[in-house]
Design goal:
It contains six helices and three strands. It has about 120 residues and is mainly alpha-helical. It folds into three domains: about 35 residues; about 35 residues, no CATH class; about 40 residues, no CATH class.
């Protein structure tokens, strides 16, 4: 068995993966543990059936239920699209917290607009 440090393995990872695929025993030392490189068989991607016993029809019904629930939540304003800008996202989320008064959310919105006008 060929044992490598992490640094040695990183330098020629492709070479060591190829050796493992060809049947050579290759291990990488990580602290006091050796981690073996070896090929594995890929299983079918039918995870729902394997884990839960759900058939294709049940999965499709579930997808339909989830899609309709998501659409209902969007229509009712309970599901929001979060902006990519982190600051805007946090402010939007903070304004929609349950139990937060509309006044507090309004004040947060005014502060945001003041900050923008100061920057400009």
């Amino acid at each position: 068995m060929k044992t490598l440090t992490i640094t040695e393995a990183k330098k020629n990872l492709g070479k060591w993966l190829k050796a493992a695929v060809e049947g050579d025993e290759v291990a990488i030392i990580n602290g006091a543990t050796c981690v073996a490189l070896r090929p594995v068989q890929i299983e079918a991607a039918d995870y729902a059936w394997r884990e839960y016993g759900a058939n294709r029809g049940e999965i499709e019904k579930f997808q339909e239920r989830v899609s309709s629930e998501v659409e209902r939540l969007r229509r009712n304003g309970r599901l929001i699209t979060v902006p990519e800008n982190k600051e805007e996202a946090f402010e939007k989320i903070a304004g929609l917290k349950p139990g937060r008064s509309k006044t507090a959310a309004h004040v947060a919105g005014r502060r945001k607009s003041r900050r923008r006008s100061r920057v400009a």
